[in-house]
Amino acid sequence: MATILYKLGRFAFRRRGLMALLWVLIFGGVGFAASSAPTPPADTFSMPGTESQKAYDLLEDKFPDASADGATARVVLRVPGGGNITDAGEKAKVNKVVAELRKSPQVASVGDPYAGGGAAVSKDQSTVYVSATYKVVQTKVNDKAHDALDKTLENARKSGLKAEAGGDAVKIEQSVGGSSEAIGIAVSAVVLILTFGSMIAAGMPLLTALVGVGVGISGITAIGSTVGLSSTTTTLAMMIGLAVGIDYALFIVSRYRSEIAEGRERHDAAGRAVGTAGTAVVFAGLTVIIALVGLAVVNIPMLTKMGMAAAGTVAIAVFIAITLVPALLGFAPIKVLARKDRARYKGKPLSEKKQRKAEARALKQQQPNLGARWARFILRHPVAVLLLAVVGLGAVAVPAASMKLGLPSEGTMAPDTTQRKAYDMMSQSFGKGFNGPLMVTIEDKNAKTEAEDVRKRFERTAGVESVGPATLNKAGDTAIVNVVPKAGPAEDATKDLVKSLRGTAKDIKADSGPEILLTGQTAMFIDFSKTLDDALLPYLGTVVGLAFLLLMLVFRSILVPLKAALGFLLSVAAALGAVVAVFQWGWLADIFGVDQPSPIMSTMPIFMIGVVFGLAMDYEVFLVTRMREAFVHGVEPRESVVTGFRYGGRVVTAAAIIMISVFSGFIMEENDLVKMIGFGLAVAVLFDAFIVRMTIVPALFALLGKAAWWLPKWLDWLLPNMDVEGEKLSRRLAAKEQVPPQQRHPQPQYRG
């Protein structure tokens, strides 16, 4: 593979105009396809095989009119100071609100707050809520409809009522991107400039990453309506695409500069950079793709599509790194170097003063850098460093054992949002369970009688606040009953109640035979969390297992991929422990702006495993391939660790700082869930890059010595040699040139 990529890198460097034109055409073509593609479909959420999904499917079949899936807005109105909402004057104000809602754009129907029909008055008669159903789904509620709802709330407040609104038809003010992404890119630019000492070199990874993300997102948009990819599918693709795009280009540009420093011709340096670093990029990309495609194991279509879309964006980032990056190097083969190093590579004679400075810099570059000194320190104290790092991460991981999972709701939004205020008003006036009612479907030829029996038995169940009357479909073979729990949607008592009611439903079915299913948003969230919990170990086993085989091909070792996987598990556990401590327990909540402790989002563990695994294996491949390369070229095992850190430590450090900066930007968002994602990914990269890869890994190599690269002879014979470290490539090039690379003059006069 190294030889093939070497030829590709040379070709891209020499035919840089053709390669750049090709990517411009791809970018333009995909962009045109995206602009002319139909509108992406609305977000759909399904969980095949769960009871909640079966109930929703039954409702679509038996209650086609009621299952229109239009957006809803629940307007909560209260008389301040304990007044009576049923008094004539207050009633007139409420009726005016209802009239305004009915005239609002896209509204299909509005319930009558004083005659049932989807609204209710609290027992103390201080509060009323009104449900408005829209003709369109959430993603198609337009600005006029949002503005009309806001205007209605404003008018209600002017009349003297306290008015707030919840539901999916209400506009969400917080934005996940925007300033967070801008901050991340700005910090990335600063880190790249400090790393390379060149604006051109710093700009290449940013430019190629943005091109890759642009092609990926445009491609998702272009085929979105065909394969059912919603607009939110691009979220994960954008985050991962930007991350790996910068990493991969950074690694190849850094290797090109190293090859130039060793005296290579420009086109040869580009070829070698792609042949060696590019091979590592290909395998690092494959590990990320495995982690993302593996989300299909969870069997939740939404996550599967997000994973597939992000995997496609990663594949594009890999192709750009091994084709467009060497082409851009061809346009600026010398300017990509640090300003102080450019003169001696331009083929111009240097003045005596500049020659002395150049020789001094060359001598300084031969001295151990910070990465090499850090590696030597660990090699001198491997046991102490290893114990300190493992015990430290283990201590941080302890809170993860008490992690409680849940899903975002209006109850977890920022306290100053209208959705959160409406949620709190409903809890205070109607009870916590009114924010998460359960829907029960009863299918039987004698549905009316069976529904009444279900109502009576459910009313006697502990934890039930109330059970509504049964609603029958036109055929009379299916009924719906609403159950209001006493506890809130995210409380453990509600989960226990759902389990208890489903047990009662099975007993009823065993007695008389009706098909009874529980659904509703609360039940769906509970089933979703359980589905993720059940899929976590299979997903982890699939991803880690496949990546283990891939890394065994890369490093031709059993212990190296084993320690890579175990180190990843340790860093993820520590990151989840930190998330639990801050967001669930409330530690340092004021520092990170967490408004209130809450359960951890159900998707966080699997989401973090997928994202962090990919980035962790990137760092592993980038760092250890340099060690492997030195080892196969005859360097003593312990010294190969120093070599790996000397050439790879700075690159991994820069890549990790960039990713931490990108993810940390999300911590400044107002929404606690966005904070959680940003915080979790930032600390996971921090732990994995600096503690696992750059501390635990060299300590283990120091203890294992040559045994780290052990591979049984029969397995060595079975595994194909991918030549990731470029050993075959180096021999072939050396034989062709008939001069060993190490004997070349370090400062050749380059040909244009």
Automatic annotation (TrEMBL):
Pfam families: MMPL. It is found in: Cell membrane. Gene3D superfamilies: Multidrug efflux transporter AcrB transmembrane domain. Residues 206-331 form the SSD domain. Its main location: membrane. The chain crosses the membrane at residues 182-202, 209-229, 235-253, 274-298, 310-338, 383-403, 536-555, 567-588, 600-619, 647-667, 679-704. SUPFAM superfamilies: Multidrug efflux transporter AcrB transmembrane domain. Keywords: Cell membrane, Membrane, Transmembrane, Transmembrane helix. The keyword Phosphoprotein does not apply. It is a multi-pass membrane protein. Belongs to the resistance-nodulation-cell division (RND) (TC 2.A.6) family. MmpL subfamily. This is Membrane protein.
